Model the fold of this input.
Amino acid sequence: MGSIHTIFLDPARKEVEAQDGENFFFALISAGIPIRGECGGKGICGRCRVRFVEGAPPPTETEKRFLSPPELDAGWRLACQHVVERDVSLWIPFSGEALGRKTAGLLYSVSFSPKATLVHVELSLQKRGKEGSAIESLKDVSGENIEVSLPLLQKLPRALREEAGKITLVRVGKNVVTLRPGHRAIPVLGLAVDLGTSTLAAHLLDLRKGTELGAKAIANPQLPFGADVLSRITYVREGGEEALKRLRKALVEGVNQLATELSLEARGTPDEIIHIVVVGNPTMLHLFLGVDPSSIGEVPFVPIWREALSLLAKELNLKVHPRAVVEVPPLISGYVGADTVASILACRLHEKGFPCLLLDLGTNGEIVLGRKERLLTCSAAAGPAFEGGRISCGMPALNGAISHVHLEKGDLNFEVIGGVKPLGICGSGLVDLLALLLEEELVDATGRFSPRPDHPLFSRVIGYGNNAKFLVTEGIYLTQRDIRELQLAKAAIRAGIELLLDKAGVNPQEIQCVYLAGAFGSQIWPQALAKIGLIPNELLPKVQLVGNAAASGAIAMLLNQELIQEATLVAKKAEHVELSCEKKFVEVFVANMKFA
Amino acid sequence: MLEELKKAVLEGEDEKAAELTQKALEAGIEPGRILNEALVPAMEIVGKEYEDGKRYVPEMLISAEAMKAAMAVLRPKLVESGVKLKGKVVIGTVEGDLHDIGKNLVAMMLEGAGFEVIDLGIEVTAERFVQAVKEHKPDVLGMSALLTTTMIHMPEVIEALKAAGLRDQVKVIVGGAPITQEYAEKIGADGYAPDAASAVELVKQLLGVS
Done:
């Protein structure tokens, strides 16, 4: 092994050590520096920009593609393109750590009957006499089935002794999580977690009262390893066991961070969390459990498991109560996961007497067409464009993202999440902007910037042909290539909708409600979606924004245990349509690429 | 008539393109001339317009469809008349991958540039690529992958070609959304092209034809 070098980081004023010959990108990631990146260090995304304060290495061909000559001269490089050879100083700008809040409330009133309960019992060993045991007496008084675990056996004698048989039990179903002598009022907390490809969201609940104590979202710490699930799968396939461990650790630490911050902010402690429902897409769930997701990456795209799982927190390295029960609702297919099942539950799609659509517009656009009798699901590979991925100035819907764009007195105006200086544009802003450009005919039906010298906004269009871009504000623009990405993404979703309608033999007119969920589900302006053609015009009046429906479903499962069983029924009922195997898909996809 | 055929391809009128090709043949125009004076120039314009940002995938595809319709009529006659084509290309999407829009565009652009193209379709295993190289003895082997999870099969194909002793008999080119020039070099391919129009240029350059 070679020697160790030091990397000085500005403006963070940090020092990081790296092996001689180690790639900068990976050295920074292993040191926990939240560098931007979407392709996992492959030189495809051009995001891991760093500036060498002095002595920048000669630029590679890849860098010449992503960085302009003045930028190269100033020392800007891509971290993934160089290896550490000596001590260096780097300037690393934006670190994507902004905190945001994902909205998710309950979409209907759930009757409060949680699986996690606090019970006060009084044990009498005399009652059963010689024939019995303490456990049998416990079963007698608590009424339900109890699983006998070693910690339960070990804790029971002291509890019996100290307060004359008075015991407080905290249980999740048949699992006794804690057992304390005496009748106490200990907190019972639940955590609903949504593992999104771009963001992790969590909601903390008081399961004795049935109230929400707080909610929080952070950027998925796996982002530097790839913007979409496929690049993360590739990362595991190439890096093996080590890579899987690394991705798992990133997710688990992200969830631990959310659990700790939320419980501390609610004046509690993370070990009071005893029941967790984790939803997410199949790849995220595989990675969270440390299960190699490679089989999802190739034909026939199958997951390792589909059934509902009930696990223990300590098996997952979660820093909550070690015996907390972690439920993972069932999956439908390799690309339609527990998040979709939870969303269906939250919208009650499986109970509707008329056909309804559910669109979750994340990196993989999950589409469900359902009613009481039948649930059809598919996943359209929209790519990360709607989450700001693979868009030159794109970013997730976090603080600093332009979330809305509109015309005001003939000029462009926009809103920024958190009211701070804009750092980029998120999905809802991108859709708004594209709709506006189409409306003003600055972009034509084929998706090309069109010359409109008479238009007041035309002065914002810089460059020609494939190099044209529209300036939103200083340093933030929408390029011709970005429009192409959005075009592909919307065509994929729209084609998915049309194929499901076709399969079910349902006309768009028959659809009674369109539930719009996902990262930008609560932010989006439905008219803009119709304008860019993502949803058919006739469905526009039926759109209902439901925010992060997956998280709502997870919350509902914490509040009412019957919904955990219902999730399994929903997954069984769902029929998955694999779009890439549909003969008509390409035809419909291409036909929907235009904006007219 | 050839001018009209060129226009039909540019505007993506597939039925008309097939009809005009048939008429041109019936009128006694040599198959080679139909190819070189109508179809090749049409696809050249398509490629140029794509580079200028005037065309995107949908507009490329409609022309490709028309080109395909014309070629279906023309191909048997070309073979009969013994017209010398510029070279032979075997093309396919790698194992585990079902995506073929990009691959089909490349195939069409190559045909439109006067190459013989043998399209192996999707989910082509290394074995089938090797088999096809043995059987058709192409000048160029083209591989496409749209998923980062499936691009890893590209080096496998190259290794299989080496193992079969065929690697130096064929130029290998690669393409697809996740592929880069660096990746192509890393796996030992002879070339990479970011889109269908540049793929034609790449093949011409590799074979030293114009």
In short: The first strand of chain B starts at residue 88 and ends at 93. Chain B has a mean pLDDT of 91.
